[in-house]
UniProtKB/TrEMBL annotation, chain A:
The organism of origin for this protein: Acrocarpospora macrocephala
Listed transmembrane segments: 9-27, 62-84, 96-118, 124-144, 189-209, 221-241
SUPFAM superfamilies reported for this sequence: MetI-like
InterPro entries: MetI-like (IPR000515), MetI-like_sf (IPR035906)
This protein's name: ABC transporter permease
Residue stretches making up the ABC transmembrane type-1 domain: 58-242
UniProtKB/TrEMBL annotation, chain B:
Chain's gene name: ssuB_3
SMART domains the UniProt entry points to: AAA
GO MF: ATP binding; ATP hydrolysis activity
Keyword Transport: yes
CDD domains with a match to the protein in the record: ABC_NrtD_SsuB_transporters
Alphabetically ordered keywords of this record: ATP-binding, Nucleotide-binding, Transport
Organism lineage string: Bacteria, Bacillati, Actinomycetota, Actinomycetes, Streptosporangiales
UniProt keyword annotation of ATP-binding present: yes
Name of the featured protein: ABC transporter
Domain ABC transporter, chain residue ranges per copy: 6-238
Length: 257, 269
């Protein structure tokens, strides 16, 4: 790590700590019904998540998110490869895909409830359905823009069929897959929480909503903080995986230091 | 004279232009014998690369065909390997040197001991110790060596090379020329080289096919009567080398040999 990056890191830590302290001090006074002091929030956080209600609420949420997002990526890549491979399919499917991806994510909540009830299936469905479109579009663009020399090279050495998909096409579009996943991930968390608030018997979103309804404001805050940390951690994890998997791309595009 | 291994039979290629069809290749025919090294040279933009793509089975000719041992080439045959000009895009950056060389061998049942074959090819191009590097960790010249190793490991009858040294510096180019001559002898390969470099064509080949400006036809075929063992300095000092170089130059430019001053001025190109 060079000097400049080290300074940036210290600055980042300093500013974050400063803002947290400011919030701490601000909330130490009486700020009304919706607020509570930071120690109370942290206490509620510890009581709820370490690890009393972890199994009851966090695990179901993570399972839903994991299943839905995995399904979104799988479907997104498959559909994207299909759409990107043929100009005709791209032209024909373009209006439909544009419409589907333009739907505000939560507008499908009622439909998903009618179709799947209030269980895990409904959450998995809505996450997978909404989150696959950014991946479809990115992958389709990536496939359509594949380098001609690279394809000729694969063809001249008779790398075909599944070998071509596994060793040439998928790696080549991996940066695009990750670009789609970055967009989708925050949408996935949003849909998870919304679904759990509207219709669920457990989950972190349910917990936040329920805490508010039962006037346990510290618990509500504990849920909000956990959701923030969850989103932050997932994004960070995705970045780490991307940097590893797409090392060649980072290098070729000169984005590394 | 050994048998004709590769026959290019009246290949013509017309592209759909924006307004009207563009004829890139009028009619090109020549043959390459077993173990022969043939170069195709021509003025820039004469459709050399298009011709090579047609010969490799990567693009269909509008009319005519290529015969490999008498069999028409309709898709890239396993007896044929291509080294492209742009190594940065013909190698797969997500695979290591070894991975790049092994990928084309995955479905080759006729090549036993694939790891050994790959290692041997890597050694032959002087990259022993770099098998686990990624292409982008290597210099341009080394990357083109990887591309050559990939072709060697594929055990082709014919090696097609499309301006393989056009993207590397002059000294690397000389090294790679000699490397190709060496491995060609070691692996007993027939080579068809497409280049715009007259010196390179004469230096490396047994025969030079000169194409005209587009729409291309074969303007001239010259047999290179140089000793089989080539050397960057001594071969290029031979009177025969100078004669051939002038002959190719004249055939390309379609004019008599220029005055000595002008020759000196263009010799570097």
């Amino acid at each position: 790590m060079n000097g400049r990056r080290l300074r940036h890191l210290w600055l980042e830590i300093g500013v974050t700590a400063g803002l947290l302290t400011a919030a701490w001090l601000y909330l130490a006074g009486d700020r009304g019904y919706a607020w509570t002091s930071v120690p109370t929030m942290l206490g509620a956080f510890r009581d709820a998540w370490l690890f009393d209600k972890f199994g009851e609420h966090v695990v179901p949420s993570l399972v839903r998110l994991g299943l839905g997002f995995t399904l979104a990526v799988a479907a997104g890549v498959a559909l994207g490869v299909l759409v990107g491979s043929s100009r005709t399919i791209r032209l024909l499917s373009q209006p439909i895909i544009s419409f589907l991806r333009s739907l505000p994510a939560v507008s499908l909540l009622p439909l998903s409830l009618v179709l799947f009830g209030i269980g895990t299936a409904q959450k998995v469905f809505i996450i997978a359905f909404v989150c696959c479109w950014p991946i479809v579009l990115n992958v389709a663009d990536g496939i359509a823009e594949l380098d001609a020399t690279m394809l000729a090279s694969a063809r001249s050495y008779r790398v075909r069929g599944l070998d071509r998909l596994r060793w040439v096409l998928i790696p080549a579009i991996m940066p695009r897959i990750f670009a789609g996943m970055r967009i989708s991930l925050s949408m996935a968390v949003l849909l998870l929480v919304t679904s759990e608030m509207v219709a669920s018997a457990n989950g972190i979103g349910f917990f936040v909503w329920q805490s508010q309804l039962t006037f346990s404001i510290p618990d509500m805050w504990a849920g909000i903080i956990l959701l923030g940390l969850l989103g932050y951690g997932l994004n960070l994890g995705l970045q780490v995986v991307e940097r590893r998997v797409c090392r060649w791309h980072t290098h070729l595009t000169g984005r590394d230091e | 004279m050994s048998a004709q291994l590769l026959e290019v039979v009246d290949v013509a290629k017309t592209f759909d232009g924006a307004h009207r069809p563009v004829k890139a290749i009028e009619r090109v025919g020549f043959t390459v014998a077993e173990d022969e090294f043939v170069s195709v040279v021509g003025p820039s933009g004469c459709g050399k690369t298009t011709l090579l793509r047609c010969i490799a089975g990567l693009a269909p000719p509008t009319t005519g065909c290529t015969l490999l041992r008498g069999v028409p080439v309709t898709e890239p045959p396993p007896e044929l390997a291509v080294v492209f000009q742009d190594y940065a895009r013909s190698l797969f950056p997500w695979l290591t040197v070894r991975g790049n060389i092994l990928l084309p061998l995955r479905r080759r049942r006729d090549i036993p001991g694939k790891e050994r074959t790959a290692a041997e090819a890597i050694e032959a191009v002087g990259l022993a110790g770099f098998a686990d590097h990624y292409p982008w960790q290597l210099s341009g010249g080394m990357q083109q060596r990887v591309a050559i190793a990939r072709a060697l490991a594929y055990r082709p009858r014919v090696l097609l090379m499309d301006e393989p040294f056009a993207s590397v510096d002059a000294q690397t180019r000389a090294d790679l020329e000699d490397l190709v001559l060496e491995v060609r002898r070691r692996f007993r390969m027939t080579v068809l080289l497409v280049t715009h470099d007259i010196d390179e064509a004469v230096y490396m080949s047994d025969r030079v096919v000169v194409l005209s400006r587009p729409p291309s036809v074969v303007k001239e075929e010259l047999t290179v009567g140089l000793p089989a063992d080539r050397h960057q300095i001594t071969t290029k000092e031979l009177r025969e080398f100078a004669r051939l170089r002038t002959a190719v130059y004249v055939a390309i430019k379609g004019q008599e040999a220029p005055s000595p001053q002008a020759t000196a001025a263009t010799a570097g190109g």
